[in-house]
User: Fold UDP:flavonoid glycosyltransferase YjiC, YdhE family from Cellulomonas marina.
Amino acid sequence: MTLLVVSPDYASHLLPLAAVAAAWRDAGERVVVASGPATAGIVERFGYERVPLTLGRGSNPGVIRAEAQVRAEADSLQGFFDATRRGMVPTLAYQARERLVDLMWRPVEKARETLAVVDAVRPDAVLVDHLAYSARLGLEAGQVPYADVVLGHPTALPVGDEVYGRPPAWPRAFRPDAAALSELDALCRRVADRFTTQWRAAAAQVAGPGAAAGTGVTDAFALHGPLVLFNYPAELTDPARTPLLPPHVHLGAALRDEPADPQVDAWLRDEEPFVYVSLGSFLSVRGDVLARVAAGLRAAGVRAAVACGTTPVDALGPVPAGWLVREHLPQVRLLRRAAVAVTHGGNNSVTEAVATATPMVVLPFSTDQFAGAAALERTGAGVVLDPNRATADELRAAVLAALDPGMPGTAVLRATADAVAADPGPARAFRAVTGAVTGAVTGAVTGAVTGAAAGSAPGATPGLAPVR
Assistant:
C-alpha cells in the first residue's frame, strides 16, 4: 500500500501529518510526502520518500523569519506581526484580507501539479492538510478521494451558520465591542464569497470543458473530503457542533518521536518541576510578550525551558541559572515532563500539551487560537490571558494557578491523555482511512487523473473501495 501525504512547506503543518503517517510506515507501508524544499529534512528524518510540490509562496523549516521569505510573503508576514500588536479584531481582519492570496496560491497551476503527483505516485490513499486548498481543489476536480486533515481547532472547518475566520467563541480576557465584531463578520463573509468564486473558476479550468466541478459550491471554506480527520481531542469539543459535522474522526493528538538531544536530556536529569514556554514557529517574533513571560516566571521562582525562536536570548532579561533557553526545543519531549506550558494556543502546542496532561497558560494571538483558548478555559484545562495586556504579575499568577494540582481541568487533561495513550491519533487515522471504523475513503486512484492533470476532463472516477 502507498500513502501520499500532501502538505504546505511549513514545519508546523508537516510535523503532525508526518506523525500521523508513521502508522503506515510502522505497518510496513510506503509513505510519500509531497511538499516544498524547506521541510525536506523533516521528510528525511521520518524515513519517507519525497516528491516536490510547492503550494505557497512562503515556507518555514521550523522557525519562520520574514527576511528569509520572498518579498511579497515577507511584507505579508510583517503586516501580520504588526496586526497582532493591535489586538484580536485587527489581527483577524488582516488575516481575512490576506486569505485570498495566501490560502489558494496559483490555484490552477498547483491543482494540476497535485494531480500530476497523484498520477506519478499512484497512491492507494491520500492525506491532505485541510488548508492546502490548491491541492484539494485539484483532488476535488479530479475526483480523487482523500482524507482531509484539519490541523487546527475544529472550527477551522465551519459548519452551520459559522463563517471562516470569525471565532464562534472567545475567552473572557477578550471583550471586543459588538460593532467591531459585526464589521469582522461582514468582512469574513465577503472574503468567503470571493474565495468561493475563485474556487469555482479554478475548478472549472482544472476539470476541463463540460465538467461540473465546483459549480455547486456555496462556501469553499466549508468544503471537505469524504472523511475529515480532526487533529484535536473530542474531549475539548463543543458537543453542540457534533451533529453538524461530516463523517469524521477526532485523532486526539499525533505525538511524534523526536531526535536525541544530549543537552535537553542532560537538563531533564534534574527532577525539579519546570514550565515550558513556546509561542510557536511564527509568534516567537513577539519578543515583548516573551520578555513579560520570562519576568513572570522569574517572579514566580520557577525553573523554565524557553523556545525563544526569533527573539534574541538577551531580550528576555536576566536568564536564571538552571533555565534552558534556545531558539528551538524538542517540544513533545519537554511537555512529557513539564508541570505547565505557556503557549500561544496553536494546534500542535495544545494537542501535545493535552496528550501529555500538561496544564496551560494560553496567550492567543490569531485565527482559531481564540476558539481553542475558549475551549481550554471552558474545560478548565488552561488559564487564558490577552498577550498584549497581560502584565508580568498577571502571568506569574496564571502560572502559579496552573501549577496548582487542584486546577479544575486536571481530570479532563488526565482522561484525555490516557485516551490518547491507549489509542494514539495515528492509529485512529490508520483504522479510519483503511475502512475499519468509519468506512473507507481510499480507492483505486491510480490512472484516474492523467487527463485532469493536463487540463482536460479526468478519466475514470476513482471509487471509494476499501484498500485491497
About this structure: Residues 2-254+424-453 form a domain with the Rossmann fold fold (CATH 3.40.50.2000). The chain has a mean pLDDT of 89. The chain has 17 helices and 13 strands.
